[in-house]
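Hi W., the alpha-D-galactopyranose complex you wanted:
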Amino acid sequence: MNISYDEAAGIFRLDAGGMTYVLRVTDEEGFPGHLYFGKRVGEDDISYLARTEEMPWLPSGNVRDRCSFLDSFPQEYPGNGVGDFRSPAVCVTDEKGQTGVQPLYVSHQIEQGKKTLPGLPSTFGTQKDSMTLSLLLADRETGLELTLCYTVFEGIPAVVRSVRAHNRGEKTIAIRRLMSCSLDMDVQDLRLLTLNGTWGREKHKQILPVGIGTQQVSSIRGISSHQAHPFLGLMAEHAGQESGEVYGFNLIYSGNFLAQTERDQFDRVRVQLGIHPKDFCWELAPGESFQSPEAVLVYSAEGIDGMTHAFHELFRNHLLRSPWLYRERPVLINNWEATFFDFDLEKLLTIARRAAKEGIELLVMDDGWFGRRKDDNSSLGDWTVNEEKLPGGIARLSEELAKLNMKLGIWFEPEMVSPDSDLYRAHPDWAFSFDGRTPCRARNQYVLDLTRREVRDAVFDQIAAVLDSGEVAYVKWDMNRPLTDVASHAEGGQSGALFHRFVLGTYELQERLITRYPELLLENCSSGGGRFDAGMLYYSPQIWTSDNTDAIERLAIQEGTAMLYPMSTMGAHISVSPSQAVGRLVPMATRGHVALAGTFGYELDINHLPEEDAALISGQIALYHRYGDLVREGDYHRLASWQDNRLFDCYEVISKDKQLALVTFVQVMGEANVKSRRIRIPHLSPDARYRVTVVDPAVREHDQSGNFIGSDEIACMRSILDKPITGRTLAEAGILMPKLRGDFRSVLIEFRQEG
Ligand code: GLA
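Structure:
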């Protein structure tokens, strides 16, 4: 890892983990230009890549074609309205409503370490493992100063960028667009990889050619959303899962965002990520500053797999702060899909008693324990225990659970208020609403104006009172509607700033929660994965991946999520079959195998499970304890995707020391008259010998579908099961997967190094 400056050539060079990023400031005027982002290159002067020796040349040599220059020069942070017709990185209006802005180089600083961003989630690093370049740009006429920050981390092929705007002038400036990063890439024939979906179908991958003009994914819902994700990947021609060049861009932010490509007239691609400019307007009085969220730019020469690895390493080592990151998480049981709102103390304890016997360690009491909430039409905002349902409150419940050796978790939805609540009746102005308009309801609820300190305080005090009233080990923080009617009734609440200030308010509340309760295990959630993003991971080590717990639907959702985020962050639970989301029948064994890919738990009432399913639970928990460390700490590699092949899914997790690997194979659709499938098992130690085992024999015998993996099904593996086999052979020759009969069948295969 290094950042260097070649003063003679005006070149800044960032190197880390086999990646190089180069930018150059032109001699005349100081235009910050982008030269290169990709695989490590030699320490040569590559300023020729800016093509300033070609027509239309630099404007100093060719004043008459200044406009053509600006419209084709690869800019590091383009301004607005003065000649570049591609998308600007920054837009402002001054007091007269004028919109011209052109940030030019002033100075720079290179330092060891990485500063965190106040009030925003951000990466962190030490003096030893990170270095930061701060590039100061200024627009002389408006007095706007921009500090572009670039950080690299030891061993990780990534650059983390952000921008701080400061008003050095004497008049107020309104910022209307401030992208966290802008990058002019000189790579042709790129394909755009995005993760899109809806409720219950989050983060499905999509790959399309990058066409001329703009293509974007975005959210204006106030959250990162189920529909789009603040990420885009760019895949070079022929790049795939394991090979070829892939560039990944991820925004560490949980609100409105824009992630955009713009292929220009010369087939170069401008990539931008940042807060969505729609309805955004942040007024900067003289002397004031505004900080953008951070964007992560990853380079991979090993396809999507290399990009995934870089994101996982970066997030695990430089974003996730929780003490729970590498700790074994308790196996939990959540009562939501078991009871919905219809529960009381006795019902919860009935679930808990059976769960405790099976080895489940934590009961999560989901929605419905507070105010007068009996369905989703009331009481959000009234965070006091409903003693009719729970006599003795949290204290009694946690004591009863402690007798069973179980801990308690509680659900909250702190950002919301029900129109039918004491809070709303007392403070109708605490909900967002436009003057004179009845706000739009979603799930019969309104959004609290968390931009106001008194609202945040009131919510926090209520939550703290509940947590202090008993032993609470875990909180599920939910958020179940998008933002509409975003207008504040507080003095001076500038409307263009509210979406962002709402996100800052949420971040501040979560920061307060984990500061006051440092041992609390916090799980974020937003109707499933509606806010599963890098921003929220700064506060919680795990996030509920989707409300859809059908194991087969989960394969695509978990593939998209794990493409960016470590497996230890994905909430994955076993629920009933037929699943409530799609009505599909999936064997209990398969449900267990798929849930092992994340933080493990149950979303059902064991007392109502068919006995043959319930009988598998203790074995599943044993598997979680056996492979939990591997899943949390190991490296994840996707070997096949049923989104591509429509037949089967396969992924590998391998320990850092390569002693142990676990491969999950799910046959989504069975086929007649096929041979066993050959799968290569990459990334093991080439010369080490591995003992290959089909895991989970207890499960095969009790599989409720009756299609258990019989001896004939593993016969095809017998040749390697009997004797250890080298990592090199496993990577090239591979293994033959057991032939499974039927749909939705799965198998786990362990590779353990010998000697
Ligand atoms: C959301 C969550 C669910 C559950 C319900 C409760 O939909 O995603 O897991 O907590 O809210 O209302």
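DSSP finds 18 helices and 38 strands in the chain.

W.
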